[in-house]
Design brief:
heterodimer; A: about 240 residues; alpha/beta; Rossmann fold; six-stranded mixed sheet; four-stranded antiparallel sheet; 9 helices; globular; B: about 300 residues; mainly alpha; ABC transporter involved in vitamin B12 uptake, BtuC
């Protein structure tokens, strides 16, 4: 995926300003930055929730910057959300199942029983998430950490080539965070998926990412390997400045 | 959740057996009353496809119920169509009307969707109400002939029962299909649905048309039952009758609206004998149900059954 000169204004404020970068296939990378840096807005621009004021997004060579979210999803670009975004009164099983049905385009079928469709595939996703035993529980009744996992699972269900995870471990316990990090790593490797995540937990960021990008006030200010980012003066300034 | 278990299958068989034998035990007045229940059950279940499954509260369901009734009536009286053909043409015609109306309505959400659907239904009402030369205006269309073999309460009873069973099975299949699951996902979270690749409006448009089709089946059946049609069938008060029925029965169970139809029409019949203040009692029932049985009678009964089973 490639992002070129992406710009988005909210009123007079430039939320995303001239952001340009390119993702390598099968790479896990992160975007970090202080609150309000424009990270989630960038995700919203890429996935079609917002449309950019200027600039383009290319995915597999195709310009997707003016497409609707559902169209972008069918190009095999999935995302999860910062604020948990699931189907609360569907069972955990159905949450995943409906995503698989949709990705295969069989949700226009009016006549067949859905219960047993794509059962194997759904259970496989649930096993990966460690949610197989809770499959009959309503999604909305799961604990917070499990809901975050389910959200990621819904995005994974459509078997995307690129997945954007918006703070996947936010609000999780340390154990859950480790589990989720391992899961993302494992699945990325197994499926040859490209992963881009927004994350505030620096342990997660530095343990998982091959490339890190830093955003500040809507601009991309640094890009590099974890070690390079750690020793980057500007980045240190922003983070220390924020704390001080 | 929606898997039809053995208990439910047995219950359905029992109900069916009761309804098949009932006319032999009750008088003609009751037969007509139960026909009304059947027709209301189809209408409320159809309307609930949108509300309970799709999360779209239409205030215009009577428009399509009335459209079915009027199309059937007009085809019989003006064009001399046989009853059977007119009965099929009603729902088909109403679906064709729902095509453009639904297209506009699903472009708005929540209360704006509800009000827009109401506006279209009221528009249809005004058209039939004021168009004397064609639709009879406020005189309606009266004395619609139906075939001799359906011309007794008993034969129309079985005819309606059969169509109700077919419609309920058809709708049951739809809500349990992948399409039905998708509609439920939309009810739960439209944004998330969009991000798993679902074209929200297209699916809402589809369920709008399907719902209108079955609403019109009910309307057309009522046309044959009453042999008169009036503009009231499209009026917003009819919509609210239907909404009250599915709320009484419960919107999150498939059978809820059917149970609601039985209770509503039965309660109306009994209460109206003793007092003319039926709407007050109805109002009290609605307050009670929404406060203490938010999932309606059906939801309440199922939760009782499942707790006693666990004990």
């Amino acid at each position: 995926m490639e992002v070129k000169n992406l710009k988005k204004f909210f009123g007079g404020i430039s939320a995303v300003h001239n952001v340009t970068f390119k993702l390598e296939a099968r790479e896990i990378s992160s975007i970090i930055g202080p609150n309000g840096a424009g990270k989630t807005t960038l995700f919203n621009l890429i996935t079609g929730k917002l449309s950019p004021d200027e600039g383009e997004v290319y995915f597999n060579g195709e310009n997707i910057s003016r497409l609707q979210p559902f169209q972008i999803c069918h190009k095999k670009l999935g995302r999860s959300f910062q604020i948990t975004n699931i189907f609360p009164k569907l069972s955990v099983f159905e949450n995943i199942q409906v995503a698989i049905l949709s990705s295969r385009g069989i949700n226009k079928n009016f006549f067949n029983r859905a219960d047993r469709m794509v059962k194997k595939e759904t259970m496989e996703v649930l096993k990966n998430l460690g949610l197989a035993e809770k499959k009959d529980v309503w999604g909305g009744l799961l604990a917070h950490g499990d809901q975050k996992l389910l959200d990621i699972g819904i995005s994974l269900a459509s078997n995307p080539g690129l997945i954007l995870l918006d703070e996947p471990t936010a609000g999780m316990s340390p154990q859950e965070t480790v589990k989720t990090t391992e899961l993302v790593k494992k699945l990325a490797k197994e499926r040859g998926m490209t992963v881009l995540l927004i994350e505030h937990d620096m342990n997660v960021v530095f343990s998982i990412s091959e490339t890190i990008r830093v955003m500040h006030q809507g601009k991309l200010i640094a890009e590099g390997k974890p070690d390079e980012i750690k020793s980057n003066n500007r980045v240190q300034q922003i983070y220390l400045g924020e704390q001080g | 959740m929606n898997i039809i278990g053995r208990e439910k299958l047995v219950l359905c068989a029992i109900f069916l057996a009761i309804f098949i034998t009932l006319p032999f035990f009750v008088g003609g007045g009751w037969t007509s009353l139960i026909i009304e229940m059947f027709i209301m059950a189809i209408a409320a279940t159809a309307a609930n496809l949108m509300t309970g499954y799709g999360g779209m509260v239409s205030f215009g369901v009577a428009g399509f119920y009335g459209a079915g009734a009027y199309i059937t009536a007009l085809l019989i009286t003006k064009a001399g169509f046989p009853f059977g053909v007119a009965l099929v043409a009603g729902p088909v015609g109403a679906s064709i009307i729902a095509l453009p109306i639904g297209w506009f309505c699903v472009r708005r959400t929540a209360i704006y969707f509800s009000m827009l659907s109401l506006a279209f239904a009221q528009l249809m009402y005004v058209i039939v109400y004021t168009w004397y030369s064609f639709a009879g205006g406020d005189d309606g269309i009266v004395g619609i002939p139906i075939p001799a073999f359906l011309n007794s309460a008993l034969s129309y009873y079985y005819f309606t029962l059969a169509i109700m069973v077919i419609c309920l099975i058809a709708m049951w299949i739809i809500v349990n299909s992948p399409f039905g699951k998708t509609i439920q996902a939309l009810r739960e979270n439209q944004e998330r649905a969009n991000f798993i690749g679902i074209n929200i409006r297209r699916y809402q448009h589809a369920i709008f048309i399907i719902s209108s089709f079955f609403l019109a089946v009910a309307g057309s059946l009522y046309c044959g039952f009453n042999q008169n049609v009036f503009a009231d069938y499209m009026f917003w008060t009819k919509t609210f009758d239907i909404i009250i029925v599915y709320l009484l029965g419960g919107i999150y169970t498939f059978i809820g609206p059917t149970i609601g139809a039985i209770i509503y029409i039965l309660a109306n019949k009994i209460i109206i004998r003793y007092t003319e203040y039926w709407p007050i009692i109805l109002g009290a029932m609605i307050v009670f149900i929404t406060l203490f049985m938010p999932n309606g009678m059906a939801g309440f009964i199922w939760s009782r059954i499942s707790t006693t089973k666990k004990q």
